[in-house]
Structure formats: structure tokens, C-alpha cells
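Q: I'm writing a short methods note and want an example of a predicted protein-small molecule complex. Could you take the sequence and the SMILES for S-adenosylmethionine and return the bound structure as C-alpha cells? Please keep the output block clean; save any remarks for afterwards.
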Amino acid sequence: MLGMFEDDIFKQFKYENINFKGKKCLDIGTRNGLNCLNLINLGAKEVIGIDIDDRRFNELYDYINNNNISNEIREKIILKKINLLEMDENDKFDAITCFLWNMNYSEYNEIVLKIKLLLNEYGVIYIGLCDECYIYDENGVSVPKLFYNHFNEMRFICYNNIIRCQWILELKFKIDYKEKDYSKNYLNLPLLKKKIKINYI
Ligand SMILES: C[S@@+](CC[C@H](N)C(=O)[O-])C[C@H]1O[C@@H](n2cnc3c(N)ncnc32)[C@H](O)[C@@H]1O
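A: Understood, no commentary inside the block.
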């Protein structure tokens, strides 16, 4: 057991047979880094966990030390104190995760564009949201809608009758993906929960 939130993530990926075999992963806003261990346990070959605040990185190191985690696993995880927006775009990832999404609202567009730049062509993104729409302010911003403007394949990883800590949104580019005009500010779009095609499993 890692922790309630981390165990919930692991359970949802396992249930849906989603694995990260051989993938180089980036975990944004990793906080205590424990989800990096989840990604390794799901097959990732390497995980870089980043956060602007490194005060809880010790929790991963303590967990590793207290649970006899092998050096082989330990060496696959790197925690870095860095702002996502400052990441080197030449370093690409096969999978990018951000659980319990709580990114700075004023930087939403920049953040999504940065995530795209860091993702390999056939990469996949998993965003953990504490509710299905993630509207948390008076502007009614919907995170799924924000991402849907940038990725053309989106679904929620969810199944019935589960008490979950967060909803996991999966995003990919389809093969025929064409770049859109991002000069518009998508943040002011109204919440379009009903209009977004959400493919429940
Ligand atoms: C709600 S916490 C999520 C923690 C973790 N992902 C989890 O599932 O437990 C959000 C984290 O994102 C980090 N964060 C916010 N903006 C960031 C940025 N621009 N770059 C990197 N980390 C950021 C915060 O410091 C915080 O630790």
C-alpha cells in the first residue's frame, strides 16, 4: 500500500489493463513522488517526477527505504524540483501523468501547450481530476474541454460501481491529427460537459 490516492490510481489502471511497459514517463506535480512508483510497478522503464515544491520528496525515499524496494527500481525514478513550464522541450516522453490536477489556473493554456511539446508523437496523457468536469471557479473552466481542444482522442477511464478518489482522463493524438489555431483563448469557453464526446468504458 502506497497511500489512498496512489492505491486508487493503481487499481484503476490495473482494472482497465493499462500499463506503461517500456515507457519513459513524466509525472507532473508529483508532490511526494509515490505515483512514480505506481508507474514503475505498471511497467514504466523510467519516471521523472517533477514538482515546484520538493518538501515532500523524502516520502518516496522513506517509502523505498522502509519497504526494501530494490536498487533496480529506485534507479528508475528521478525526482526533480522544477516548474513544468521550464522543462527542456527536447526531452520527450511516451506518457505524461498529472494526478489530482491542481495547476495554476492563469497558466492553463501554457501548461497544456507545454505538455504537448513534451509528448512523443504516439504518446499518451493521463490527467487525474477530482471530479468529472473539474469546474472549480466562477469561470466554469472545464479541464476536459480545455484538453479536448488540443487532443482529438479522449476518454475517461472509469467503470461502474467504484468509489474513486479521482477521475482519470486519457488523451492521445489520433494518426490524422491536424494542428488547430490556438490563437483563440479557449479558457473562456462555457462548460460543455454535455457536448464533449466522453467515451465511458
Ligand atoms: C494537488 S497536488 C498533486 C499531488 C500529486 N500529483 C498526487 O496525486 O498526490 C499538485 C502539485 O502540483 C505542483 N505544481 C503546481 N504547479 C506546478 C508546475 N507548474 N510545475 C510543477 N509542479 C507544479 C504543486 O506543488 C503540488 O505539489
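A: Remarks, as requested: The first helix runs from residue 4 to 15. The chain has six helices and seven strands.
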